[in-house]
């Protein structure tokens, strides 16, 4: 089955990625000893929740045409495919030393970069008129995370 996606489906995936990011940061916070590191990671988890809410709001604002199915999919395979992509490509379960803040931040930066690459690729799968231009807002949100994470990493060095 060839897949074209609409913005609604991509926002579903963006929401799942943000949920995965929240779990990543909360799990990392459990492994650090310093209170300030724990506080930063929990703040990052909260930012992921904020992004999830932003994406949910953006999804609610889509037009009916931007939500329209692009393929015949009676068994909802598209949703399962997108969930699998979100769960295995960005903020997926990794084995990292959660006691090392540098390693946590480096992995988080990689995950945020992966999410940007992922969304850029998804733009090619969303036809014009189905919300393709809205993906730029997702990418902009993720770029803000990279700036914050990079700043925190440089402060540690």
TrEMBL record:
Residues 9-152 form the Rubrerythrin diiron-binding domain. It holds the Pfam family Rubrerythrin. InterPro entries: Ferritin-like, Ferritin-like_SF, Rr_diiron-bd_dom. This is Ferritin family protein. It comes from Desulfobotulus pelophilus. Signal peptide: none annotated.
């Amino acid at each position: 089955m060839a897949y074209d996606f609409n913005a609604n489906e991509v926002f579903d995936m963006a929401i799942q990625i943000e949920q995965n990011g929240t779990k990543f940061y909360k799990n990392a916070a459990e492994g650090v000893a310093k209170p300030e590191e724990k506080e930063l990671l929990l703040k990052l988890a909260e930012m992921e929740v904020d992004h999830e809410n932003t994406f949910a709001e953006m999804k609610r604002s889509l037009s009916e045409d931007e939500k329209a199915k692009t393929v015949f999919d009676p068994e909802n395979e598209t949703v399962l495919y997108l969930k699998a992509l979100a769960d295995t490509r960005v903020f997926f379960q990794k084995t990292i030393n959660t006691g090392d803040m540098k390693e946590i931040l480096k992995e988080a930066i990689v995950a945020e970069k992966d999410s940007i690459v992922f969304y850029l690729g998804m733009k090619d799968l969303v036809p014009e008129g189905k919300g393709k231009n809205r993906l730029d807002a997702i990418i902009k949100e993720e770029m803000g995370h990279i700036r914050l994470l990079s700043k925190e990493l440089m402060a540690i060095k």
